[in-house]
């Protein structure tokens, strides 16, 4: 019998609390490797603001190539450092991964693990359970555009919003495929087709065309401004939301608030049509500079993200196990301050790791 092939996991802590939470994410993967015998090889990348300020490196071609050809997954902390106000290293790394690996579906579950975490009057955790599929390789994020007459009274700044039929269609299809696989009855598509008559007319038309391939699933259109209203009034009817890159970014911070904050929101960046490809996993939150290095960051978003990674790698069941352990810790107030506890980052991770180890 041959030993199972090892899966290479690249760890990219990045900046600020990215380092704090990835230290705990690494311990979680080490637990699975050492106590569960998962065939994982961990490869830590020294990339981020420190490295950029030291030698100008952002995201080397060789690293990108090794990730593409050898790694099974990347676990990213966060990028963004006040010492690099232009965020050039952050864009090179983050977009280098998302665009470079063609990870067109940014899958962001919005699920509350405890009634106490839901900030809406009269609502409980069962009201908050949806998944946002954010287009991740196009839109306003492509960086097309420019500045003209910069610094003069006549200056002009342009960012183009790029939408391709293929790009829009594959993301919408990923949302429907997820709905089908998970027994969901509806998919909402959020756009601004009333104002963006070119780009979002494409989204609107494409959405209803793709929907015809999924007869059991009701396609529902919603303008993104109204979606923000409805999510705060009553998130229950929403199961799957597909949307463009920028709106997905904004809506999922609102979604994170419904889950108890950014410390509770995990995400996956995948090439949904070819799940065998290397994928990238990251908490939704950023580098939160005021919390960095102070043992204050909530590590649960990273734990939940690792759960998504393990599912993706074929270790079925671990995502639910990690989620259950986090939910219990929240219920018992063994959590960080942002979610009503008093523990630090390390102590919460210690507790979650001990609970998981007990279940093995
Ligand atoms: P942020 O997500 O870092 O923080 C927003 C708020 O959420 C803050 O109040 C912060 O304290 C809180 N928060 C975030 N994560 C938390 C955690 N794990 N535990 C407890 N509280 C948490 O967003 P920001 O302040 O707008 O951005 C800071 C930097 O991060 C910026 O440079 C931004 O560009 C970058 N950023 C990076 C990513 C990424 O790498 N994927 C994502 C978002 C923002
Ligand atoms: C996120 C972040 C990034 C984004 C930033 C840091 C460019 O907000 O991952 O949600 O807008 O995608
Ligand atoms: Mn964001």
Topology:
Blueprint: E1 7-14, H1 17-36, E2 40-44, H2 49-55, H3 61-70, E3 71-78, H4 88-98, E4 105-111, E5 129-135, E6 145-148, E7 156-159, H5 165-181, E8 186-191, H6 199-211, E9 218-223, H7 224-233, E10 240-243, H8 245-259, E11 266-270, E12 279-283, H9 300-312, H10 318-331, H11 345-359
Parallel strand pairs: 1-2, 1-3, 3-12, 5-10, 8-9, 8-10
Antiparallel strand pairs: 4-5, 4-11, 6-7, 11-12
Helix pairs in contact: 1-9, 1-11, 5-6, 7-8, 9-10, 10-11
The protein binds nicotinamide-adenine-dinucleotide (NAD), 3-isopropylmalic acid (IPM) and manganese (II) ion.
The site of 3-isopropylmalic acid (IPM) has 5 residues, from helix 4.
Précis, in short:
The chain has 360 residues and is of the alpha/beta class. The protein folds into two domains: 1-101 and 278-360, Isopropylmalate Dehydrogenase (3-Layer(aba) Sandwich); 112-264, 3-Layer(aba) Sandwich (Isopropylmalate Dehydrogenase). Helix content is 40%, strand content 19%.
What labels describe this entry?
binds manganese (II) ion; 10-stranded mixed beta sheet; single chain; binds 3-isopropylmalic acid; Isopropylmalate Dehydrogenase; alpha/beta
Description of the structure:
The protein has 360 residues and is an alpha/beta fold. Helix content is 40%, strand content 19%. The strands form two sheets. A ten-stranded mixed beta sheet has the order 2-1-3-12-11-4-5-10-8-9, sandwiched between helices. The longest helix has 20 residues, at 17-36. It is globular and about 55 Å long. The structure holds nicotinamide-adenine-dinucleotide (NAD), 3-isopropylmalic acid (IPM) and manganese (II) ion (MN). Manganese (II) ion binds next to α8.
